[in-house]
Amino acid sequence: MEFLQKLKISGGVNLSNLRPSRDNERTTSFSSTASSKTDSKGDVSLPPRGSPAAKKMKILLVIDSPDTDWAKIFKGRQLHGGTYDIRVEQAEFGDLNLASYSDSGTMVDIQVYREGTVVVRSFRPDFVLIRQSVRGIGPKEDYRNILLGLQFGNVPCVNSLTSIYNFAEKPWVFAQLIQLQKRLGKDAFPLVEQAYYPNYKEMLITPKFPVVVKVGHANGGYGKVCVHNHRSFQDIASIVALSDTYATTEPFIPGKCDVRIQKIGTHYRAFKRTSISDNWKTNTGSAVLEEIEITDRYKMWVDECSQLFGGGLDIMCVEAIVGKDNKEYIIEVNDTAMRLFSDTQDEDQRRIADLIVEKMEKQYPPKLEPSTATGAALTGNCYKSLQSFQCAFKVLGGSSTPSASEGATKTEKKKNGGLFSGLIE
Ligand SMILES: Nc1ncnc2c1ncn2[C@@H]1O[C@H](COP(=O)(O)OP(=O)(O)O)[C@@H](O)[C@H]1O
Ligand SMILES: [Mg+2]
C-alpha cells in the first residue's frame, strides 16, 4: 500500500485539490450500465484486465457535473447490438486528473468521495463526452491542461478536442464568425459588431452608448456589463486593468427576445427566450422559453458554425438577439457544454447518447480487436507488480482496512485528514 501511495504522489496527483463537499452528488454519479456488477451502493468494480467482460466493455468517460446522471441515460446501451457494453464513468474537470503516454495512451484518475473517504478510480477511457466548459470563471477554472492530456493520448472525444480547445477563447471564435459573415454576407449572417481590446490600455475611444462590455472568457452572463456613458466605461476599463485579461465591446441591442438554435448531431431545435425579470441578460433571471420553428435561415447558421475548426462541433448552438425592429443579431456560438432546456432536456440527452453510440461504433468496429486497452484499472509500468489485483483504488483521507464487500474502498475518515492507499481484490 505504501508502495502505491508513494508512486501516485510522485506521479503528480494533486492531493490538495480534493473537494470533500460532494459526497451526495458522487454516490449517484458513479453507477454503471446494466451489464456491470453492482453493489448495494450502486458502485462497481472494473472487471479484471484481459477477462472476457473487460474485452467486451468500452469505457466512456463523461465530463459533466453530477446534476446529470449519464450512467442512467446510457443504461442498457451497447455497441453493435451487444458486441461491446458501454461503461460510464462520470466526473467534473475539477475531480479528474490524468497521465498520458506517447505509447500507451491516457490513464484517467477520478475522485469519488463516499462516507468520509476519498476514493480515486483509475481507468483508461475508450471515448470521452465533454459536457462541461473547459474554462469556468476566473483563472483557476481552466482545464486546458486536461484537454491537452486527452489529445496527447489520442482519446476520441465529442465535441472534437480541437474544437473544444479552439472554443476556450471567445474572441478566437468570434474571429471565425467574422470570416463567416464576410463569406455569407451581412444579411444572411447578421453578426453583431464587435471591438476587441487585448488589455485595458486601448480602451480609450468611447463607443456609442449604451454598449455591452464583455470581459475575458466566461459563460453564464459573467463578466458582461451594460455601460451607459463614458464615465462608466472608464470605470469598467479600470476593472479590466485589474482583471489582466482582454475585453470586447458591442452595441447594446434593446431586444424583444433572444433566439437560440441548437444542433445535436443532425437534429435541430430553435427556442425563443423572453426575459420577464428586469435583467437585460436573458440568460440570468427569469425568462419564458418557447420552442419555435427551425427555419432554413436558422438551419444555415448552425450548419455553417458547426463546420468551424474542422467540423468537430457535434453539440453546439447559435445565439442571437431579435431587436425591437425585428432585426436579428448573432451574438455568440456555444459548443459542447451548451445548456439543455428543461422541457426537451430528456429527449436531447437521449440524442446525445445516440450520437455517442454512433461515434463509438465507428471508432470500434465489431470485428477488430480493440486498439486501446480496456478494463483493467492500472496498466502503467509503475503498477505492473499490482496486476494480480482485480481492481485498485487509492484511498485518501482514511486509515482503516478497506472493506471488500462494497466493491469500492471504504475507510473511516481520519481526524487529521491523513493519506491512505488501499487495494481491493
Ligand atoms: N449586445 C447585446 N445587447 C443586448 N443584450 C446582450 C448583448 N450581448 C449579450 N446580451 C445579453 O446577455 C446575455 C449573455 O451574453 P452572451 O454574450 O450570450 O454571454 P454568455 O452567455 O457567455 O454569458 C445574452 O443572452 C443576452 O441576453
Ligand atoms: Mg450566451
UniProtKB/TrEMBL annotation:
Its main location: other. Residues 27-37 have a biased composition (Low complexity). It comes from Porites evermanni. Belongs to the synapsin family. The keyword Nucleotide-binding applies. It is found in: Synapse. Keywords: ATP-binding, Nucleotide-binding, Phosphoprotein, Synapse. Residues 15-51, 400-425 are annotated as: Disordered. PROSITE patterns: ATP_GRASP. Pfam families: Synapsin (PF02078), Synapsin_C (PF02750). This is ATP-grasp domain-containing protein. It comes from the Eukaryota. InterPro entries: ATP-grasp, ATP_grasp_subdomain_1, PreATP-grasp_dom_sf, Synapsin, Synapsin_ATP-bd_dom, Synapsin_pre-ATP-grasp_dom. Residues 181-361 form the ATP-grasp domain. PANTHER family: SYNAPSIN.
